Structure formats: structure tokens, C-alpha cells
Request: fold
Amino acid sequence: MKSIRLYIILFLFGLLTGCFEDEGNYSYEEINPPLWSDNFNTSSPKRILAYAGDGEVMEFRGSKMFTWETDSAMRADEVRYEWKIKGVVISEELDFDMPTDEVVKKIGLTRYSNDMGEWGTFSVIEKKTGITFPARLFVYFYPPFAPYDWFILSENGGNSKVSVISSRTVLENGKETFNYKLKEDVYATINGHDIPGKPKDLVMETSRDVSAGGACVILTDQVAYEVNVQNMMKVDEVKDQFLDGAPVDFKIAAMREKAPSSPSFGEGAASFIVTEDGRLFTRMRSANYLVGKYLTEPYYIDANGYEITMLGHSTYGQNIPCYDAKNRRIVMATTWREDVGEDMYNKTSVYKTRVIPLKRHQTVPVSEFAEGTEMLYLSQKHHIPFFYEGTTLLFTAYYNDPNYPATLVGDFGFDNRSASFQFNGFERWFRLPVKLDASSVFLVSSTYRSSTYAEDAKYRDFYSVGNELYFVQRAADWMDTSVRFLKFNATIPSKITSLAYAFFDLDQLWIGCEDGTIQAYDIRNINSPVLLFEKNVGGKVASIKQIGWHTTSHDWSVYELVELKNIKL
Reply:
């Protein structure tokens, strides 16, 4: 047995010795790989931004991604290049430009996402050996109309038009800066026809069935076109979205959507339409947007009847304050979960729309406004923290009481869970130094964001008087109920007809005018605003909306000047 073990050991030793002495059996060549300028692996790929649409071009610069250690000119002749996105070779050039729409077509991209990109590679390949040196790419394909672009609805003779202002980050003198590009009358260019009627509003919808960015309703006094927010293609008309056909004498005055605040619990988007004669129509969509049509019958609130003349402002996913002029009261358009089923073992929770009349409040006479009251503006607010969180929210009303010589402003609270008013003693009530009328435009934020400039916006309300802009400055200390009235320091060439915030950080103020002028101001220092952009679209600006991904902390439908005709106040 010992001798067998000795033979095995000697045999293995001979094999190992043969391996060590096997010199000259292989030939070795120096690889000479490219020296990448970064670690282009899966954790830090080369990132490329691309915007689709007419005139948009992608830049591919392989020469800036690597160098050769030696013999650069000779080495360049020994290799070729290959750019792949989604596994598709789009070019074999080192440096080149290509229209984004051509790249999109090559790789078969059919749906744009708001925040995701496509993986790819840029490879340096040796011609002789086929050895490949790949670098990872991650390419963001933004749609023709991307998040943070601005939609502008304006008059166009007897019709309306939608233009788009695109904001892009560009490199100038080694410093990144924003560049704004105006694309006029894009709806007509893309769809091949004008928008009939005088402009009223742009109404944002979450509608993920239309696109990842949602949809937008272009509202005029004649039509309500629903368009894909990413490419401006018309997809539907609101009059065709009713269960049993459009209602009789159906003329839309205003629309708002209560976006789903809890989609993971099955909540869908609830939409509210007010017609010019004060009727209210609603629909409740499923969480996946596959079902949901407007009910052809008007909403029933109570035996008192109603005449809705205003849909107010709110954050994304929260209650919409409305004014019922017939009964001189505020009602809250919202949703809530209800249990449906025969018993506790066979029931489920579903979301339903509900419109709730408010009963009373210490600060604002929410259900007993004086005869002849003119409601100017309603909005959710967030200038009193701690007490107004969760289902309990704070609201502000701007209105003219015939018994007072100036416009009144007051806060009121509402709890969606109990459908009742809330009051804690820190709500503000005051008079403006002027009496406004229906021509004034308001801009009030209901944001819950905690960034520096969003915090500033919580305590500031804008209102216009002709071509001049003013703001109410509340005290930042929520226990201090004092207010100041200040003038916005800017030269505005014409009567103000529209106002909007840059919704994410509320650090920009956009102004639309009767003569077609659009101005954008940096308001990070509210006392010294900086003009960023000014253009003229040729007709009265009715609505300005910034598109992008919202959360329940963001403002949703910013108030615009919407004239409700044939309404008796």
C-alpha cells in the first residue's frame, strides 16, 4: 500500500514539473487597452441626456471617453468603434451627431418614461483580434415635451393655440446655465388643425394610460381636447368621456382633478367638471386608469340644490374647495374610502367621490356668506403647520363682502375623515388695502415641501391689479398672525392674465399678459427678482402650466383667470 501511494505522489510531481518547465509553448501579445477617463462600469456608466422632437440632436463623443497610453495615431488605425443602445448598433463612428428621433426609431423606443433610461455600450474593438473593450452607457430619452417644460395657452385670433417653452441646461463659458426655447403653436403643427374657441385653461391629468407623464386638457369656450402631455398628440375629447353621452347644454367652465394620493391602496383619480350653468359632473377612475367615465347625470349634493361657480386650488391628491353661489357656501370636492359588501367577511373598500357642504367656521362664514358676496379665490394653504396635517387641511378664501369696502381674506380648516371644520385659534383674518374684482389673478401655494423657497412660498400670496403685482406676506412664525402688503418689484408691460410657479421648488414666478407677453422671474430673493426670460406669443395668455412628476407635497392645478359666463352671483 505504501508503494502505491509513493507512485501516485511521484506521478503528480512529474505533472507539476512538466507544467513549470513548459516554456515557449504559448505566445503573448501586449493588449494596449484604452485608458478610460472614468470607471464606466455598471455603477458609474457614461450618462447621456437626449431630448426627442423636431430639431433635437444627440451628441456622441467617444474621443472624450478615453486616451491611448502610447502610439495614439497608430493605435487608432488598429481599432474600430461600436455604439449600442438596447442591443442595437446605432453607429460605428468615434464622434458623431444624430437626430434624437432617428436614434429613437433605430432602437424601437415606443414609450417614454419620466425618470428611467436605456442601457448601452460604447466599445473599442481591435480589428485584428476582435478583442473588445466596452464602456457602459446609460441614456436618458426625454420626450419631445419633457418634465419642467412650460405649456402656454393663448389667444390666436378667434381661436386658441398652445406653445411650449423648453428649459435646457447648457454649458456656457464652463458654467451650467438654463436656456429657454419657445416653440410656438405646437398643437396645430403636430395635429394639423387649430384649436377652436377662446382659451380658458390647461387642466393637468395624471392619466398614465395616455403617457408616463399623463395628459392635459386644452379647454376653450368651444372644446375640451385631451392631449398626450409628452408629445401633444390629441387622444380624446372630454364630451366623449361620459357614460351615457354628453349632458344636454354641455359647456365646460372649469375642470380639476383630485389626483390619487394612495394608489397603492386602490385609489384612482377623481375628476370634477363645472359647466357654465353651474352643474357639477364627476368621474372616479381605477388605480390603473383602465376604467372610469363621467356620469351623465349631475352630482347631487343635497336638497338645497347648487350653482358651482369656482373650483379652487389644492396640492396633488388633496381636497378641492368649491364655491356654491346659489347657497353662498363653500363645498369640498374630495374622495374617501367606503366599505362595500354584505357582511364583514364579504366586503371590500372602494374610493368614491363626495362633495361636502361646510357648516360653519369662526374665521370665514363658510356656509352663510352675505347676500351679494363675490368669491374671488379659494385655495388650500400650509402656513400653519402641526395642526393641519394628514386628513386635516387648511384653506384660504379671498372674497368681497358687500358690507366691507375692501377684499377680505380668511383661513378655515377642514378634516376629510370626519367631514367637519377644524379651528385652532391661529387662523388669520384680514382685509386687503384694496377691493379687487374678478379681473384680478391670484397665485397661492399649497405646497408641503420643506425646501428653502417652498417654505417662503407658504407665507406669500400674489394678487394682480392691472399690470401690477402685489403679494401678501404672512409672518413665518405661525403663532404671529400679522400680515404685510408689498409690491412685486418688476416692470410688467400689460395687464396680468395668468400666473404660475415653477412647481418643484417654487423659486420661479411666471407671468402671462393680455398683450401676449410671457415673463419668468427668479424669485429666490423676493425683494430683488431677476428676469430670466421674456417672449411674446402674439395673443392674450390664458394659462401657464409646468409639466412634470408631482407628489402629494406639490401644488397641482395652479389658479388661472377663468371667466365663468352666465353665472349669477
Remarks:
- The longest helix spans residues 2-20.
- The two ends are 113 Å apart (CA to CA).
